[in-house]
Design goal:
Elements: E1 2-4, E2 10-13, E3 16-18, H1 23-34, E4 40-41, H2 42-50, H3 58-73, E5 81-84, E6 87-90, E7 93-94, H4 95-104, H5 110-117, H6 135-158, H7 162-175, H8 180-192, H9 196-214, H10 220-230, H11 257-269, E8 272-276, H12 283-293, E9 302-306, H13 316-323, H14 334-342, E10 347-352, H15 358-371, E11 375-380, E12 390-394, H16 407-412, H17 414-426, H18 437-446, H19 451-458, H20 466-472, H21 476-479, H22 494-502, H23 507-516, E13 523-524, H24 525-532, H25 536-548, E14 553-555, E15 561-563, H26 566-578, H27 582-600, H28 609-618, H29 620-632, H30 636-645, H31 647-652, H32 656-668, H33 675-691, H34 695-709, H35 715-729, H36 737-754, H37 757-774, H38 776-790, H39 796-812, H40 816-831, H41 836-852, H42 856-872, H43 887-892, H44 898-907, H45 912-922
Parallel strand pairs: 1-7, 8-11, 8-12, 9-10, 10-11
Antiparallel strand pairs: 1-2, 2-3, 4-6, 5-6, 13-15, 14-15
Helix pairs in contact: 1-3, 4-5, 4-17, 5-6, 6-7, 6-8, 7-8, 8-9, 8-10, 9-10, 11-12, 17-19, 18-20, 23-26, 24-25, 24-27, 27-29, 27-30, 29-30, 30-32, 30-33, 32-33, 33-34, 33-35, 34-35, 35-36, 36-37, 37-38, 37-39, 38-39, 39-40, 39-41, 40-41, 41-42, 42-44, 42-45
Amino acid sequence: MQVRLLGPVDAVDGEDQIDLGGRKQRTLVALLAAHDGQRVSLDRCIVALWGDSPPAAATHSLQTYVSNLRRLIDPDRSGFLESGGDGYRLLIETDVERFESAIASDEQDTKTLVDALDLWRGPPLGDLADDEWARGFVARWEQLRIRAIGELASSRLAAGDAEAVVVDMERAVADHPYHEAFWAHYMTALYQTGRQTEALRAFTRLKTVLGEELGIEPSTALTVLEERILLQNPSLARPVTTLNNLPSEMSSLVGRAAHVTEVLDLLEESRLVTLTGSGGVGKTRLGIAVARLALPAYSEGVWFIDLSRLESAQLVLPAIAATLGVEPPALRPLEDALTEVIGEKRLLIVLDNCDHLIDAVAAATDLLLSRNAGVRIIATSREVLQIEAEIAWRVPSLTIPDVADTFAEIVGSEACDLFVQRAKATYPSFQLTEENAPDVASVCRHLDGIPLAIELAAARSRAHTPRELDRRLSERLDVLTGGGRGALPRHRTLRATIEWSYGHLDEGMKVFFDQLGVFVGGFTIDAAATVTGLTVDEVLDVIDGLVGRSMVQPIAGTERRFRLLETLRHFAWEQLTSSNRLNELRTRHLGWATNYCVSESPKLMGDDQVTAVAKLAFALDDIRAAMNWSIESGQPDVGLKTATALSRFWYLNAMHFEGAGWLDRLLDAEPVLSDLQMGRALTARATTLVRIGRLNDAVDSARRAVDLLKPLDEPIALGWAYYYLAVASVSGDYDNQDEILALWSRSRDLMLQAEYRPGIALTTMLISAIVSIDDPDDGIATLSRLIEAAGPDGNPTLVGHSLELRANALVRLGRVENAGIDLVDAIRAHHAPGNWACLAHTFEGVAAYLVADGRDLDAARLVGGIETLRLNISTIQAPYERFHVGFYSWVEAIADRQELVVARDEGRLWDRELLISQAMAYLDAE
């Protein structure tokens, strides 16, 4: 008996089809069958059948459907449907299970794929496919079918059956016109059947479809394929039987199609391509895949030589000779005999795992390339060979999903695809579901998308759920074991892989690598020098060596930044701990973090704000670790200095709760501080407390800061204390307007005394905002001067606030068009540093503008979007920001108008990017 889901939902017993009854009955069968033997809760069943508003008798009705299901499928059979207080399990074979098992099979061949695809009878789940519960399953099965179609095409092309591929791909590109891999198979198959012109026309069709419908160009891989077809590249010819010893593929290669193409092209440019990358990233498998596709171009042989088991440099040349069938001569050097036998033959040699014998491999490679013009070599190594004509290509990790990715995006990520495939090989009933997908994604992120690590983790799926695996990854070096018996010793566990690489470092590199374990995130050359105690030049030398050995990863950007992959960092941390230097290094790390924050934080008030925000964000994980260590090690005064310096950063990144939390923790640790340091810390605390609604605490903190700073000759510090005392004291309706003006005026006087331009501009702006409530013209004049003085490259936050406040005054004067221009510029200013807290307030200005323009529905939608944004960034609107006079009473009245309630609820569904694009559209921004 079998339940079939790959088409209209039905059940069959041999040749007999079973009538499952009405829609709800079929929905229950499909829901239980789709979960592949996993228990489905009562609540999930009820929601699937009736949605979010089930009838009062839903539980009873569900039990009736279950009874019907038992009767319909097989009344004499026991145990196929398990029930319990928490739900139901259906234990019947499904076509999905057969399909997925075939796709995941290590013995996958053309017949297996054809049989699997023959299980499809139409769109999965038929008329149930659009139900809310069904969408994730349908998306996953469709993705698997697409993959199976592509793998079948690859298999047939490799077997020389291009005619069948043309037929299959004509249908595939019609059904999936944006799927570039199908177009690549189609173009290749057309070319191999002698239809070069049609292959080129296919590319033109794809380019037209992508350009007209999506506004994008074909990928680089497709463009390169077109060029290779045009030039009749030999590698595109039909496969021929080539003498080779390439290892057979035990499982499918995931996420590397474009990389294979790129390396093939590099092999045409250079006679030596070295694939580099960290341990476990897949250099060997990529090298074999490239060599396999290159077989037609090397009719005289493609040879794979594994050097990993060689222990002596003297064995490298004999190993190459033995593989090529060259007997060691008795009376002359082996290199002469080897190169004479090769002669002018066109050969491709793959030298795998060169790391531990790098000098000997480099010498042998140089010998072969210099004496034998027909030889090309692919080498795999953590470091380059450093000989002439070498092209080094770093093998990247697989793509991993972001934290906020949807189920469909998780399904589509290379790392998760690999995890699922390998999990199914170990535990055939494993499924990626909407419930476990976030945990699988988290596992892949923790493992940096490294294929070996992911395969080892997936191999534990029989004993551990993805959530349990994710939790245990803090012990990853011990958890990830279980490589296959055929795997190399260093690949059987993740620890062995790393130890093998680590063991080939010299002592100086080992010490430096261990010390890098103190960095939680990335690091710069200067940071590494500060923490390790080396000079910048010394660090550069060692870093270059570790990057060359793929033990350290460079990070793209304008500044030289680096990181350890998470698994390598855990190993370095263990080594550092065992050396008894951990506390010393963590204290140096704390000193670096503090000095870094103190030096970068003043730039947050200047014209270089965007760059400063990005630099602090890059170092944030390390800054957090440093502050935590300051508490653990009894140095809260140092940590508090760090957190104080970050007060503006917390604000600009809407991280008010985190900032307040750090400042409270560090102050509670009873640091020993001077009055100046304590005054600054209390001011920073007031800054964060305002934004999370703890106004009384904020006022108290600011007043204490003022009292501590008054006796000191520190006008800027005291000016900020008065500034935030005013911010914390202001009420939404400005009943205490005179008091607030007095405090901000006192703050401005102090800033003027110190000639501190950012403070002068900010206090002047807020004073003008209050003045403009009663005198818009005066406020507009002052704000215009501030905007002009700042210029187009001025501090984004100051410019953005000034533009928004001027727009507010223009709206009150009825000059709506000019206000709209200012609001567009304000949004752009705040978006540059990613200041979503300020953007939330600016969006309120847009909503107030829309109300003044008579566009209530658009304003209500924007209000809903703002509510969701504030919720997502965990920030409230501070009272001092309520400058939009009359607007807030309009917001409160939304509840009295049903059409506005509906519009607001619509806006609540917007994400950040949709919110910003809608706001700009309402302003007619180009």
